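#struct-pred
JK: can someone run the complex with fe (iii) ion? inputs below
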Amino acid sequence: MSSNGNPSRLLLRDLAQVVSSTGSAAPLRGPALGQVDVLEDAFVLCDGARIAGVGRMRDLGALDGDVEELDGRGLCAIPGLVDCHTHVCFARDRVGEFELRASGASYEELHAAGGGILSTVEATRAAGEDGLRAAVRRHGEWMLHAGTTTFEGKSGYGLDRETELASLHAIDAEGGIPTWLGAHAVPPEHEDADSYLDFALGEVLPEAAQIAEAADVFIERGVFTAEQARRYLEACRDAGLALRLHGDQFSEQGAIPLAIELGVRSVDHLEATGEEGIRQLAASDVVGVLLPVAALVLGRPMPRARELVDAGAAIALATDFNPGSAFCESLPLVCSLACTQLRLSPAEALGAVTVNAAHVLRRADHLGRLVPGYDADVVLLDAPDWRHLAYHMGGEVVSAVVQSGRLVWRR
Ligand code: NIG
Ligand code: FE
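RT: done, structure tokens with the ligand placed:
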């Protein structure tokens, strides 16, 4: 509180540009995804945790009372970035596996040999509650420094009751939006996927549903079939969870038809999606979440983003931050990949990591744009033109981060 008793105000002034997507009523599709409003020589006024005003400097009237000011000369303001798909809750890393892959081993081979996801499961089970919280905190800070002010986080490296619930608690306690990825892999103590699902739905779901907002499942050859996923998702829906799924990462196994039939929020990955899947998704309300870092790291084909957008599908972009296929917390880098590998424009990339990602998390009525009444989450880019978000590949493009109206980080 300031001395006059008003909640504190923060004025970001003399910004080179203030930029956000034009619309937000529904997930942005087709040409609307590429439409941004650009204000030059502009300000953003935060009042407490909300945006109170956005405009040109010449239209900024006198402000009574205490206002903290931040000099934005040479900087651009964009909305705080929203990462709608991360696996933040894991212990240890898999740098050794990274090295093996660099000399030719495939992700599926490593998975089949008990490496991959299951080796992180072992480490995560051993980490304990405090260890998991510390891991999520550390990863969340990395994300914040890259401009992410809202992140979803999945469990899925516990796969036993205690560690799955501890993972969801850790994500929640560290400010993430928890998703129960109870069907990420079959852990070694279970004979097969069906008996593991008996356990997960019987023993873990009732409590997981009290903490998580959504449920997620990995449909893939050798992991869970579409029929097993249907059983898992229907039970999760009945327990009150929203639904999402990992589909078409390596092969098409019926994920898109199932996603549409069940009315899930999103189907994520889509590296292997063909013509028919593109057509079906475009005609549906399901958002396709594209994860170009995972495709790049695993040497897979990139998802067909351009065709999806042109066909009218709603897409979002996310990091997929995880220790195996995407040890990368940077949404600016994801935007760079979107513009260089997915044939999206900088404006489409911005809409996909703000408004559309917020839609996947059902928070687009208050997150993802710089307009009055929205949450005062703002990223300041160290650039005279906002398109440096994607142009400055792998660079230190984020200069400062405002979260809930407070300057929380500055380079
Ligand atoms: O989304 N595809 C499944 N899960 C993660 C990878 C997890 C891991 O390799 O640890 C993904 O890419
Ligand atoms: Fe993932």
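RT: quick notes.
Residues 85, 87, 246, 320 surround fe (iii) ion (ligand 2) (CB under 6 Å).
The first helix runs from residue 95 to 102.
JK: thanks, will look after standup
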